[in-house]
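Ticket #4471: structure output looks truncated?

Reporter: J.K.
Steps to reproduce: submitted the chain below (519 residues) through the standard prediction queue, then opened the result file.
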Amino acid sequence: MVQKKTRFGVMAILFILSISLTASYIVDVGETYLHPIGSDDQIVDNSIQEDLPPEPPSNLTVKHTNQAFDVVFEDHVVNDLGYTTGQSSGASEWGIRDIDSISGNYSWDFGNGSYEDPEKGGLSWLITPEIDLSNVSAAELTFMHWRDFEDESRLWDGGNLKISTNDIEGPWHLMEKSQPGYDGILDDAWDNPLGGEPAWGYSLDWEEVFFDLSDYEDESIWVRWEAGVDNYKSDHQGWRIDEIVVSGDVSLNDDKHNLLTWDASSDDPGDVSHYNIYRSDDHDGPWNESTLIANITAEDSGTYQYTDLFRGLADDISWCYLVRAVGTNDIEENNTEVATEIGYTSTFDISLYAGGDFEGWNFVSFDLIPKDTSLTEILHHPEYGIGGKYNRLMYFDASNDEWLTYVPGRSEIFNNLRYWDHTMGIWINMEDDATLIIEGSLPTITDITLYPGWNMVGFPDSSHGNQNLPSEVSLIGYFEGKEEYNIAYADDPTSFVFYPGYGYWIHNSADHNVDWTIE
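Returned output as attached by the reporter:
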């Protein structure tokens, strides 16, 4: 590059100095001015830097969801999610860098602004963690990439994509079902280790690529980006990868995901750039880069959602989450509002009594989503059950307008009450006093369908209340051992207070089903 030199005359310099000594100044925010003080010129930085973080988001909640999300693996390149990187001798490394990205602040970068040309050519690779495609159909991989390789008239340097279905050691097979396809065949004249293979090369701004993964259904896969460089020196920036997503039609049977919801910062829109999402198995964190899993761009929304895939009940860990707003000035606020996924770590004790005015009858429920809804598994749990201490259970199934019963030792053909969940109130008749312990997780939201007429329900909430009770409810029955049939009635539902652990009769006076949402 030829540098041009400019020479100022003495008269020109004197003219500039005379202006600087006599001019009036109008100061604009964010500018730096030469301001004369006495006989000396001094640099004074009058820029006003915003040094305050935005207000935090609020009302962070976590709940389980079994919705068939089509995302199997997702990486917005915020933190290393378990990738493997490597390179041959002398070759440049892959790394998460803030040189450039399509979204957020980071991307996977090969070259670090200027990649090396080893004496014998070089190979560098980036490998995803294991991606499980079991129960996934019509799978596809998408990602964004940016590239600046040595090009001129031939593909001297470049990269391609390979896949393994064995393990992280390979063998690796070239992936070719892409849109758009590769740019051509890499030249092998200067010892490029990928010479002769299809590859992307040249220089191109951010572009989205699609790969068909339908040939790999019901398998685990590892995806590997390979950058191949010849031994001829060049001055180019390399290759960047961002927004990596594997998706497909997912078949799910239980609550495998954690769904986060939060209300926006009061400074959104305007002063919020994005929201950082942190996940830890400890309520106290740490909340730093080691637990940062994603960020969500601020989009002038009242509420935001993020789905943490396959972190729900499937992994038996009660995860903790924290969301913080990051300002357009890159300053992150430091709120400590942690929301915890409630896993299978909670228990609920039901005290059951024999004899007395109620002749051994108990009208009970529980507020947990049980680990197993099988009635016999609950009653005869080896540690928490009441086997041998009860003699009969009864439940009115309003959906079919019939009584269901269970009697221990009776033929199964007559025992038509087979399950018990957190929406049901149940009558239990006891022979001896005992405590039944339910193991499960606290629900975040429960919908109970109230059929026309009488319904037997529980109150699946960890505290007492009367929340969202439908106006169609005209009567409420509750346990009272001295009353006929052990039931007393409240004819003013609006003032009635429900408690977890008790069973209730609720009368829906409408001629149609009504939903009662408890949250």
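Triage note (M.O.): checked the attachment and the full token line is present. The first strand starts at residue 32 and ends at 37.
Status: closed, working as intended.
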